[in-house]
Amino acid sequence: MTGQERRYRRLLRLLPASYRDVWEEEMVTTRLERARTGGEQDDELRAELGRPSLAERANVLALAIRLRLGGPDAPPRAFLWGEAIRRVALVGVLAHTVLAVQQVWQSLAFLEVVPWLPLPPEARDVASDPGRWQQLLTGAGLLWLVVFVALLAGRWTAAKLTAAGAVVATAASFLQPIGGSWSQRWEMLTIGGATNLLWLLTAVLIALCLAAFHRQAPAVRRGPWLLALVAAVTVLPVLELLTYLGLVVPPSLTQADRYAVVFIVGGVIHLTQPWIRGHHPPAAWSLALSLLSVAVLARLGSLLDHVDAAGGAAPPALFTITVVQAVVVAGLGIVVTALAALAVQGASDEPTPARLHDPPAR
Length: 362
What we know:
Elements: H1 3-12, H2 17-35, H3 40-49, H4 54-68, H5 76-110, H6 131-153, H7 156-174, H8 182-190, H9 194-209, H10 222-244, H11 255-271, H12 273-276, H13 283-301, H14 304-309, H15 316-346, H16 353-356
């Protein structure tokens, strides 16, 4: 085996074993034939030192994603993982979209465009001028709304490109040039904030999860997701307005608290499906909630930034609430992870006979 063949076979390990069993030899043969130039010395040198090109690596990676995060025609296990990652991506995009609406509301309140519009609780101690970098962050947030609409419309490529733009704009807004020093920019990203760093990392992971939306992926059911968006962007502003008018006094919740509460409510509803609807909870949602529990726990952990900012001493109430939420989220996460593991173990990784002899997808 030449060095070129060995490197290409190593690249093909990204593909599922069931797919390689059928197509690996043909793919390797085709690849080696295309690499021949007809010159004996050039072919010998290429056979020993040749490496897969960047385009070949990208093609194999795209194929691996389509096979491992498959659509309805994929093996059950690949389809299960694909549906779970697509749900995680939609939840993440929805969360960023809701935050974008909140940031627009905050900017309008800062600029007194709507005089009676109350400020969100977390924005009341901020200076009255949002500044150009905060405006950039708001613009980046609105890009997630475009991503969400593009996903519902089935425009996968537009959604991925817009998400990449949102990540770049978010990074630029966090790395604002204070004094022109890159060390100060990094300090802005990490201090008073690992929250900023965590939020940026979350945006990157969501953008990567969008890879699960490929041409074999099924269309998104628009109704439930549109309902979730309308409910999310309506409840918080209405609640804040009622609080501003003194009509209700809701508990003071940070962004992390809200994510934890939503996760807990969603997890309880998911686990009570056998009693509510008389059937087992959807396996794809069990796997998605298992992955989301990690993100929610990480977000709760970022509250330590606020503790440090307050002088290093944890307020007893904040510490207690955070610990209780973390314990409940972790408990639900363990249960849904067990359900997800059983579902993944029970799902077949073998392609259906009708799909087994399909030619390699390019």
